[in-house]
Amino acid sequence: MLLIFERGEKGRGLSLLPACDVPVVLPDDDNMRQKPLHLPEVSENDISRHYTDLERKSYGVNDGFYPLGSCTMKYNPKVNEDMASLSGFRDIHPLAPEACVQGCMEVLKTAEEYLCEITGMERMTFQPAAGAHGEFTGLLMIKAYHEGKDDRKRTKIIVPDSAHGTNPASVSMVGYTMVSVKSREDGGVDLDELKNVVGEDTAGLMLTNPNTLGLFDPHILEITDIVHKAGGLTYYDGANLNAIMGIIRPGDMGFDVVHLNLHKTFSTPHGGGGPGSGPVGCKKFLVDFLPKNLVDEENGSYTFTNPGNSIGRVRSFYGNFLVVLRALTYLLTLGKEGVPSVACHAVLNANYMMEELKDLYDIPYPAPCMHEFVMSLEGLKKETDISATDIAKGLLDYGIHPPTMYFPLIVPEALMAEPVETESLAAIDGAIQAFRELYERAQTDPQSLHRAPVHTPAGRMDELRAARHLILRYDFDERQKGADDDQKY
């Protein structure tokens, strides 16, 4: 596919933008570019075809089944988009006076109240722009809490080996040291090892429940109690809240801080670089450390307030407001009864799919799962030389996005699938049939899977070469040299 820079020709253009109606003021010579800015010279027709081509080559939840584990790639109701496109929300300026944006502030306050009720938290900030950003924010609050007590010996965060990959990175960014805790054979946290690693240097624990194996830890109250008795705080990674919302609250499990993924659990657009939203909530004793700009109601109107010991801003202004609006629309549409219904159907779909595949695919943790489950293709690879990657590539030819590959790391040749609650029985049955046919092909025609996919815009990539020989920028000078050489001959 041609890049937009390669579609046009010199002198070609269009008139979508109005003529400039103010004086043109250029910077002085010292601040001027030494080379012309590389802008594509294209017609409206060129632009339209370019983005149409991109759309055809991309894949999203509107295209088909998207069982990406721990990501909850659910359908985004169009009513959410309708609300986010209303001019009174869409066209506001973040520096507008409070009196002019009372409706928007009410959205933030209402969303905070609903999400605090769902999570069992006291207050919530919407500043973090994604889940990992929320992790960073929550850990900063934990650090500020301990330093506020002049307890600077607490330098370690405990993270289970089944944790999301962003957890260790967030721990490092905050300046803490990560301590890994192994899982038991049933997939839960090893309580004996946890007791051995907690101590006076424990700042906290990061954990998601259900975990990345799709399992709810039955000892969760004991886990959080062990950390609290050691003087640490507990952080809930909300990436898997889709399985339990409206059924059980992280706050009731003993967690002090929680982040949510509005772009996962609450049906806002997900993927493609954003925008996302990773709000952070906390118990009452941590409210004073939240980022600046909370919304409070005073004398019938809304105003922004700042916590006394705030960690400061973690993002400009108030977060990705329209993402919050979409999530609130989703909650209002579901209502009190609909929220737990989402969780129940997510769990039902995952267990149904797991049960229909377990006679062929190895399920290392066969207990009833929550919203996702993990398969291991280690045995299949030894028998047929078909790997998790081969099965994932094969799914592309069925019009199905692959599940998460090679994660969690504690499962060899892992495929982690999350069918989500918005998929119909027919769609899930179709995916089950595809998995079963791919397993049979692994037995009878493994070479065909080594070549897969063959019906997609791009075929099997040389991933090793791509990783070792990165091309991260477009070389305009080299392109121009090639064009000049072509003209010579």
Automatic annotation (TrEMBL):
It catalyses: N(6)-[(R)-lipoyl]-L-lysyl-[glycine-cleavage complex H protein] + glycine + H(+) = N(6)-[(R)-S(8)-aminomethyldihydrolipoyl]-L-lysyl-[glycine-cleavage complex H protein] + CO2. The gene is gcvPB. The glycine cleavage system catalyzes the degradation of glycine. The P protein binds the alpha-amino group of glycine through its pyridoxal phosphate cofactor; CO(2) is released and the remaining methylamine moiety is then transferred to the lipoamide cofactor of the H protein. InterPro entries: GcvPB (IPR023012), GDC-P_C (IPR049316), GDC_P (IPR020581), PyrdxlP-dep_Trfase (IPR015424), PyrdxlP-dep_Trfase_major (IPR015421), PyrdxlP-dep_Trfase_small (IPR015422). One of its GO terms (molecular function) is glycine binding. Its EC number is 1.4.4.2. Residues 345-441 form the Glycine dehydrogenase C-terminal domain. Belongs to the GcvP family. C-terminal subunit subfamily. GO terms for biological process: glycine decarboxylation via glycine cleavage system. Keywords: Oxidoreductase, Pyridoxal phosphate. One of its GO terms (cellular component) is glycine cleavage complex. Transmembrane segments: none annotated. This is Probable glycine dehydrogenase (decarboxylating) subunit 2. It comes from the Bacteria. Its cofactor is pyridoxal 5'-phosphate. NCBIfam families: PRK04366.1 (NF003346). The modification N6-(pyridoxal phosphate)lysine is found at residue 264. The glycine cleavage system is composed of four proteins: P, T, L and H. In this organism, the P 'protein' is a heterodimer of two subunits.
